[in-house]
Amino acid sequence: MHDCPRCKVPLHGYEKVCPACGTPQYVSSAYEYDDNTFARPKNNSLPIIVVASLLLFGLCGYFVIQYTWVGQLIKGNKDEPKVLTTLESRNKIMETLDQDFKNINVQYKCKCLSQDKEVPLTTDQDINLSIEAKLANKSQKDGIVPSLKPFLQTAKISTIVIKDTKTQASWTYTITQDNLNNSSGESNESSN
Predict the structure, then answer these.
(1) Which of 164, 152, 166, 161 is nearest to 190 (CA)?
(2) What is the mean pLDDT of residues 129-146?
(3) Is there a contact between 112 and 119 (Cβ–Cβ < 8 Å)?
């Protein structure tokens, strides 16, 4: 570093002309072959280091929140079951019935009834299900209705009647507010 001999402005050594007065200057040997008027500044890596460390800290924080007890405490209990609409519940019941009868290899017919008239599944009214199937034995009916329990309350279904066309027996399941009462009767008799 040196000063301009004419105006005494401090110079770095790479200036060919004094920026203050315009006097030609002596250029040091380190900058002698440089074509630019000013030396190229070196790269400042501090902003890159700061951004990279913030990203790393954020990534570590994300994993802490996701996979440790601290994260579970912050997130709270979000595992609450989704509340289904009436139509969604009825569709789930039909899917479950299909799967249950497929598992026991039995063909069935299901009707939705409201006031003893057949109605579509999409009706807003409370409905009853009437299921007709040819069961190989009575124990096959035992696995059908319990798998429907999670959906019965929101589906607005008040009664499920399973009729066995082979033995002419029927079983009536009456749905109350919080539970499912099972009653069975033989020869088309049903009791609650």
Answers:
(1) 161
(2) 82
(3) yes
